[in-house]
Design goal:
Largest sheet: 9 strands, parallel
Structural class: alpha/beta
Number of helices: 29
Mean pLDDT: 92
Strand content: 5-15%
Low-confidence stretches: 1-14, 430-454
Number of strands: 18
Distance between the termini: 33 Å
């Protein structure tokens, strides 16, 4: 599910309302105090931004108390944090033209100064090693956005050095810093796609990108701060923040105040970040940064953000985000004498401070000495403590098994953390042995595994032996027990499933080249045909269409879409319309289902998605959809009818919510019965349930762990062997690393790469999440397996 982004375009700053009547501001402060710091509404928040003098004191008191409450609840009362780091400006080139930026340079200026378009690996390591010697534990990689899109000299440098993109170079330098110095990279390269975030997660314990503002007019209107900067589109930046959450990456973001936005836009920006964090829980800190004018920029004549106005904005950010969010203010952008105002406003983190490198974005503002920062913090009644680049609660959760850190990186990060998750004072950095570099194996190869002792007195080992001899002879109780496998038992289960996968379908990791179209968008047939033609030009063999057309379009909308796809791409395979949509189309047409299915086939539908299966239990289905789902028996009837009409389908299971292992087994049994009757399923797609994509809140729901995902894919492989021989790794739900894990334990297919195209990239329901063939090849190569492109029905392409 894609979260819709609604961006307001409020009035220009010239139309900024005058400070409210004192009674209006007093009333807003009264409500804030009466609600004990509860988050104010949008209108009150905008009013509170006007607080000055005594009114500001009242606002700061509430914000400071909220911060103190959050620190107590987090188990670190009275502690304000910072990260001791070095700043690595990998390149000063950028495709954007922000009117206030002094960090970005042109190739001519760099050449005149004798500076290469990119820092060399040797220069990067020299900075990192010096930082490690000074006790730093973080290396912040900061750079301009995709300079190769604007500057030929950047493209040439990358080509000459063997890098596909700037982000490819970022990944290599982060790996080098990790392996050679032990510093933890924090990656801040600007806009990244979902796939790019996934590629960088193994070398980045945390990442970041400032939202800056949701003001679209600052981006679209000539003369405004972000005009001419493609990466400053607020909708694009919000999508990056959402994708980081989907990727389970501890993410730093924030707002930049004083660049032309008005108070309503400031509130909108903070609320957008609050909403993103509510969906994914990944925003580890929100930076509230004040504008400082720079000479030789288009905005050099603009006034710096006034201190009390800044403090009010920090305090409103705190009360909107609540006690649990970490709120940061850069300590070098405010005069030392006024830092106490920011402490009172509710900050609990100073961000990165370097004993070695300057703030390359604000070079005119030197970092305070860490000893001075500790003294100033103490004067406010707080203790300064060093943290790592990922904030403490993410490290504690990672230690307990949560996927905030890539498993190949987890030990390196946790080695530097104390039990609470702050930086260990005794942690020393130096060169890491080469044995710790590179990708760690997912599991030992089956051929070289050493027999292990079962964690359940040999019971699961005996069950696995029985399953290996006769998988169809195992009863439900046995499968339920195997779904609980962990430790050595889980490795044995995955190894057996992988062995069966090899025997049934071989070693190739298969994939399809396809694109999605969301039928509910109501795209006209001409546009659908254009998208199909573009998909063919990009190498697709399949278009997948899901969603019910709008009610006013009637039944013909289903047929029109199918015909348009075939008209635009005559050779395309059309994989379209889920079971619930098949029923909807027949009802709209007022004809029997069998006749409607025949009409769909005649219009061009080739196969149907078997999604919507969830768990085939009506109680569970009701909980997951708020009672709007079709009954389990009806789903089975519909997919069986499609098979009977000659329309093969996928099969799915959505797991990891309120269901039990027994429910999972019953679901797989139900799919097996359909397959025995029709032979119509092409593959099984297990999909972990994601709370952020749920149509309704689900009380008592959990989220699937990596252990559960591995166990379910392995059991599904073994239970359905000989019935449904292809098991797909749903990479959009599992992430790239999660997909690798299940491919090493029974899965054989990655599904479609989900091309976005350029004509209308938002036409698919999972826009922004696209794999390249290079991604597929790399992912498989790390498992030691080849890749093969397939058609929808698993014939080989070419």
């Amino acid at each position: 599910m894609t979260v819709p982004l609604t961006l307001r375009t409020p009035a220009r700053p010239a139309d900024q309302p005058q400070p409210p009547d004192p009674t209006v501001l007093a009333a807003a402060l009264d409500r804030l105090e009466e609600h004990d710091g509860g988050a104010p509404g949008r209108d009150d928040a905008e009013v509170l931004l006007h607080a000055r003098g005594a009114d500001l004191d009242r606002l700061l008191a509430v914000a400071g108390a909220l911060r103190d409450q959050g620190l107590r609840e987090a188990g670190r009362p009275g502690v304000i944090t910072y990260s001791r780091k070095v700043f690595v400006p990998l390149t000063h080139l950028c495709q954007d033209r922000c009117h206030y930026c002094i960090f970005v340079q042109t190739p001519g200026k760099l050449a005149k100064a004798g500076i290469s378009p990119y820092m060399s690996a040797e220069e990067v390591l020299e900075v990192a090693r010096q930082g490690a010697a000074l006790g730093c534990k973080e290396a912040l990689l900061t750079l301009g956005d995709r300079p190769e899109n604007r500057w030929p000299v950047a493209r040439q440098w990358l080509d000459d050095h063997g890098y596909a993109s700037t982000l490819d170079y970022v990944g290599h330098m982060a790996r080098l810093i990790l392996d050679e110095t032990g510093l933890l990279p924090h990656l801040n390269p600007g806009v990244m796609s979902w796939a790019e975030l996934q590629r960088l997660k193994p070398v980045g314990p945390s990442m970041g990108m400032m939202l800056e503002t949701t003001s679209s007019r600052l981006w679209t209107e000539k003369g405004e701060a972000h005009f001419g900067s493609p990466d400053k589109d607020p909708a694009l930046r919000l999508r990056v923040i959402d994708d980081a959450g989907r990727s389970r990456i501890p993410f730093t973001t924030g707002v930049l105040l004083g660049i032309g936005e008005n108070y309503a836009e400031r509130v909108d920006s903070i609320l957008a970040l609050r909403d993103a964090h509510a969906r994914h829980g990944h925003v580890q800190e929100v930076i509230v940064q004040n504008f400082r004018a720079k000479s030789a920029t288009a905005m050099m004549g603009a006034a710096d953000l006034e201190t009390q106005e800044y403090a009010a904005a920090v305090a409103v950010t705190r009360v909107l985000l609540g006690p649990g969010m970490r709120v940061q203010a850069p300590p070098n952008l405010t005069d030392a004498a006024e830092l106490q105002l920011l402490v009172r406003a509710g900050i609990d983190d100073w961000g990165g401070v370097s004993p070695l490198t300057p703030d390359h974005v604000n070079p005119e503002r030197p970092w305070p000495h860490i000893e001075d920062l500790a003294r100033l913090t103490a004067e406010g009644g707080y203790t300064l403590r060093e943290r790592l680049t990922a904030h403490p609660h993410y490290l504690r959760e990672a230690r307990a098994g949560a996927e905030w850190l890539d498993d190949r990186l987890r030990d390196r990060v946790l080695d530097l953390a104390d039990d609470y998750g702050l930086a260990r004072h005794d942690a020393l950095l130096g060169e890491f042995p080469s044995s710790r570099a590179g990708s760690l194996p997912l599991v030992e190869p089956v051929e070289t595994r050493v027999p292990t002792s079962s964690t359940t007195d040999g019971r699961l080992a005996r069950l696995l032996s029985d399953v290996e001899k006769d998988p169809r002879g195992a009863d439900d109780a046995a499968w339920v027990e195997l779904l609980g496998a962990d430790g050595a038992d889980l490795e044995d289960l995955a190894a057996l499933a992988d062995q069966v996968r090899r025997e049934r379908v071989g070693d190739a990791v298969t994939y399809a080249v396809n694109r999605n179209i969301d039928a509910s968008l109501g795209l006209p047939p001409e546009r659908v045909a254009e998208l199909a033609a573009e998909a063919v030009a990009l190498g697709a063999t399949e278009v997948c269409a899901q969603g019910a057309p709008r009610a006013e379009q009637g039944a013909d909308a289903y047929l029109d879409l199918a015909r348009a796809v075939k008209r635009g791409g005559p050779g395309l395979h059309l994989h379209a319309f889920r079971p619930a949509e098949l029923a909807d189309g027949a009802a709209r047409a007022g004809m029997p289902l069998a006749d409607w299915l025949e009409r769909l086939r005649e219009a061009g539908v080739d196969t149907v998605p078997g999604t919507g299966a969830r768990i085939l239990d009506d109680r569970i289905r009701g909980l997951l959809t708020g009672g709007t789902d079709i009954p389990a028996e009806r789903w089975t009837e519909l997919v069986t009818a499609a098979h009977t009409a000659g329309l093969r389908s996928t099969a799915t299971i959505v797991y990891g919510h309120v269901e039990s292992a027994r429910d999972q087994v019953r679901h797989l049994r139900a799919l097996a019965r359909v397959q025995d009757a029709t032979g119509g399923f092409t593959e099984l797609i297990p999909m972990p349930w994601l709370p952020s994509e749920s149509p309704v809140p689900v009380a008592g729901a959990r989220t699937a762990t990596p252990r559960e995902s591995r166990a379910l894919h392995a059991v599904a492989r073994l239970m359905l062997a000989g019935r449904i021989d292809h098991v797909q790794a749903a990479w959009t739900k599992l992430g790239m690393r999660g997909a690798q894990r299940v491919l090493a334990g029974g899965a054989d297919d990655l599904g479609g790469v989900l091309l976005d195209g350029v004509l209308d990239p938002d036409a698919g329901p999972e826009q922004g999440r696209e794999l390249t063939v290079a991604d597929v090849t790399r992912l498989a190569a790390e498992l030691g397996r080849p890749v093969r492109q397939r058609t929808t029905t698993y014939e080989q392409v070419g």
